[in-house]
Amino acid sequence: MIQRPFKQVDVFTSTPYLGNPLAVVLDGDGIDSAAMQRFACWTNLSETTFLLPPTEPSADYCVRIFTPGGELPFAGHPTLGSCHAWLQAGGKPKAAGRIVQQSAVGLVAIRREGERLAFAAPPVRRIAPSPTLLAKVAAALGLRAQQIVAAQLLDNGPSWLGLLLNDADVVLTLKPDHRALRELGQKVGVAGLPSSDGSPQLIARSNREARAFARAGEPAADIEVRAFAAPIGVEEDPVTGSFNASLAQWLIADGHLPERYVAAQGQTLGRAGRVHISRDAEGQVWVGGDSVTCVTGSVTL
Question: Could you tell me which of 33, 178, 233, 275 has the fewest CB atoms within 10 Å of its CB?
Answer without folding.
Answer: 33
